[in-house]
Specification:
765 residues; alpha/beta; Rossmann fold; six-stranded mixed beta sheet
């Protein structure tokens, strides 16, 4: 890790943005007095965490901002940015570049940025300490302060050493842990005091509440018994009610179904009545039609009677004519040949048939039955056919032809009568068919009426049966409803009993085991125990719940405080352990470092003075550590720490060659400077800080010692980056880069990049 770049803007004498880029190794900053060289150092010191205005060589922090002149107005802010490269510390920061920026404004507001993100000064100081950088160590040695290593107190010196040795971070952790420990001990004392204050009152409450605890035991037992007794009974009633409700629903469904059936049968009955009415109306209409038909038939009958009477007259007339014809042959032709006599027998036959015909007509006239009339008409028709079959003129002599013509005329009349009778017969047949049809239809209607009447009787019977069934169902439903109400009353009685014991019924039945089954004897035993416990609880009397609540609250508070106390005690123990471990780590590391520094300290004293002896001793403020045997440089360093945690410090012992006196106090000013430089290089060789700024620490050295200083500086530059402020040519010659600081025409600092030869002339000017 090394400082790659510093950017300054508006800080002290640097009005404009100024950038200095530093390589690894040694960088020299040169310039005449008052040009602003040390302001570069102040900029570094300010960003590294310096807060003292005195150490920044100003009255207050606002004066760090460029104050202005006749050429340039005063600035509104001051900004300094440091960029470190090749960090290579993933345990501390993820990136390899570390950019730290600090800005101050005219109103006194200060901002901090870490890699362009807002940051706190405290966090930045701790971060820099982890890299062995800070204002309390040896990161920056100011002009004239090289001897401070010798002048400061042992405690301050120890702090200085710790920081440059990278132990400052551990010391910060130790200080933080110590502060936490102190605060924790205070809190522990407070918690312990509170517990001691509360305990007497708590004990008094506990004595009172012990009765409540006993009461609670009985109450818990009572609750368990009640869960069994009342829970079992409740769920039995409830289960019974569920069964009743299911049955009631079944009854409702049946009642609804039967009511629907009754309504359906009533509807059918109403429809049947309508049908009956329609059939009766139709039957009456048929009867009326039949009556009208009979009337018409009677009229036809009368017409037939009239026709028959006429026919009878005609037949009578024809019969007389026939008789006359039968008589005429015997009187007019007595000598007729006997061979013609058989032919006249036909006339006799006709007469007989006419007489039969007359009888049939009389039967027709005298009959009132249409069927009988119809039968006689059929016989009449047959009789006429027989008459027409007889031919009286067959073999008749010519002399009687006139008479036969009369007979033929008669036959024609008879044939006409036959046709008339045939028409009557057909009409009667038609009337007969109609009457039969009407009769059949009337019979069908009567049968329908009878069927419908039967259906109605069946419907009435069905309705009566369903109504009886409905009454039975309603009665059964009423019985179940009464049972349901009884169960509800029993449940209410159970609730009242539980309420009288100041118990929650819902809680009891909710938490009871519904799978348990108890006998009547077991239930009675439960009830007896319940009553006994109730009597015991009544004897215990009332316990103020407020006091119980107060006891519970106090108990919770004590438990909380006890837990706090336990946590605090553990925290105290843990913090003490952390502090002890940090102390051990710091002491062990510091002890080893001091031992190694002593070795290098003597090495550099040998280089500078040609010999001498130097030792660093770790001491207690109250009691100095015993001296280390100067003859034994490998001897263990004594460390004195008493139980009071006395502060430790570092004391310097030096004996130079050719001097009789020991101790830093006996050294001259020049010797002190050289001893300080030797000690500085000894510390740097062991701690290997990433950066060390030396501000004219070589000012008091002669040429020979300056050469020695430059050589040592070169030797150590491969492990530590150096930025030196110097006027010394020999020191400049060891630098990898040289920057010249000058005051320009506008009276503010400016930076020039110089070659070594040019720097000599630059310093002369």
């Amino acid at each position: 890790m090394y400082l790659r770049e510093i950017e300054i803007k508006g800080f002290k004498s640097f009005a404009d943005r100024t950038v200095l880029q530093f390589p690894k190794g040694i960088s020299a900053i040169v310039g005449p007095n008052g040009s602003g060289k040390s302001n570069v150092v102040d900029a570094l010191r300010w960003v590294l965490g310096e807060q003292s205005s005195k150490n920044l060589r100003t009255d207050n922090s606002i004066n760090l901002i460029f104050s202005g002149n006749e050429f340039r107005p005063a600035g509104q802010s001051a900004k300094v940015k440091l960029i470190f490269d090749e960090v290579n510390r993933p345990d501390i920061i993820e990136v390899n570049t570390l950019e730290i920026e600090k800005v101050i404004y005219k109103d006194g507001k200060t901002e901090y940025f870490l890699n362009k993100k807002d940051a706190r000064q405290k966090d930045l100081i701790e971060l820099l300490a982890s890299f062995q950088l800070g204002t309390k160590g040896l990161s920056i040695i100011s002009q004239g302060s090289i001897e401070n290593i010798l002048k400061v107190s042992p405690v301050e010196r120890k702090v200085m050493f710790e920081e440059i040795l990278g132990l400052r971070q551990l010391e910060i952790k130790k200080d933080v842990s110590q502060k936490k420990l102190d605060a924790t001990i205070i809190n522990l004392d407070k918690v312990s005091s509170l517990i001691n204050e509360i305990l007497p009152h708590f004990r008094s409450l506990k004595r009172y509440v012990s009765r409540f605890d006993k009461q609670q035991e009985y109450k818990d037992e009572l609750i368990e018994l009640c869960k069994k007794y009342y829970g079992f009974r409740f769920y039995n009633f409830q289960k019974n009610n569920e069964s009743i409700l299911a049955q009631l629903k079944n009854y409702d469904d049946q009642i609804k179904t039967i009511e629907q059936q009754i309504e359906s049968e009533k509807g059918k009955l109403g429809l049947s009545d309508t049908v009956d009415k329609n059939i009766i109306s139709h039957l009456n209409q048929q009867q009326r039609e039949i009556e009208n038909f009979v009337k018409e038939l009677n009229i036809q009958k009368q017409s037939l009677v009239y026709e028959m009477a006429k026919l009878e007259g005609q037949i009578e007339e024809k019969t007389l004519s026939l008789n006359q014809l039968n008589r005429e042959p015997t009187t007019s032709t007595p000598n007729v040949n006997t061979t013609t006599k058989p032919k006249f027998i036909n006339f006799v036959t006709l007469e007989l048939k006419f007489n039969n015909l007359k009888q049939l007509i009389k039967n027709i006239l005298n009959s009132s039955d249409i069927h009988e009339i119809k039968s006689n008409i059929v016989s009449l028709d047959q009789a006429l056919d027989e008459i027409l079959a007889v031919n009286p003129t067959e073999n008749v002599k010519p002399e009687i032809v006139d008479n036969t013509s009369r007979i033929e005329e008669l036959n024609q009349n008879i044939l006409s009568i036959k046709n008339r009778i045939l028409d009557l017969k057909n009409k009667i047949d038609e009337f007969d068919k109609q009457i039969n049809s009407k009769d059949i239809e009337s019979n069908n209607l009567e049968n329908q009426i009878e069927d419908e009447s039967k259906k109605q009787r069946e419907m009435f019977s069905t309705i009566e049966h369903k109504q009886r069934e409905l009454i039975n169902l309603q009665s059964a439903k009423q019985n179940f409803s009464v049972e349901f109400e009884k169960n509800n009353i029993n449940i209410e009685n159970l609730k009242n009993q539980v309420s009288s014991m100041n118990l929650d019924f819902e809680f009891l039945v909710k938490d009871c085991d519904v799978n348990l089954i108890f006998s009547d004897i077991e239930l009675k035993n439960f009830y007896d125990k319940i009553e006994k416990l109730r009597a015991i609880l009544n004897e215990l009397g009332f316990v103020d719940q407020n006091i119980v609540d107060e006891y519970n609250d106090t108990q919770k508070r004590i438990e909380f405080l006890e837990n706090q106390k336990s946590d605090l005690e553990k925290a105290v123990s843990d913090l003490k352990l952390v502090i002890k471990e940090l102390t051990t780590q710091i002491n062990d590391t510091f002890k080893m470092a001091i031992k190694n520094i002593n070795t290098d300290f003597n090495k550099y004293l040998e280089i500078i003075f040609g010999g001498g002896k130097g030792n660093l001793e770790i001491i207690s403020i109250k009691e100095k550590a015993s001296k280390i045997d100067e003859k034994d440089s490998e001897a263990e360093l004594p460390i004195i720490e008493d139980e009071a945690n006395d502060k430790l410090g570092v004391e310097i012992k030096v004996k130079l060659p050719k001097t009789k006196l020991d101790g830093v106090e006996a050294l001259s000013g020049g010797e002190k400077s050289l001893v300080s430089i030797a000690l500085l290089f000894a510390i740097v060789s062991q701690s290997k800080p990433p950066l060390l700024v030396l501000d004219e620490v070589d000012a008091a050295l002669d040429e020979e010692n300056t050469r020695k200083f430059s050589n040592i500086l070169k030797d150590l530059s491969d492990q530590t980056q150096y930025v030196v402020i110097t006027h010394n040519w020999l020191t400049m010659s060891s630098a990898n880069v040289i920057y010249g600081v000058t005051i320009g025409k506008e009276k503010f600092s400016q930076i020039l990049s110089l070659e070594l030869e040019d720097s000599r002339e630059f310093m002369k000017n």
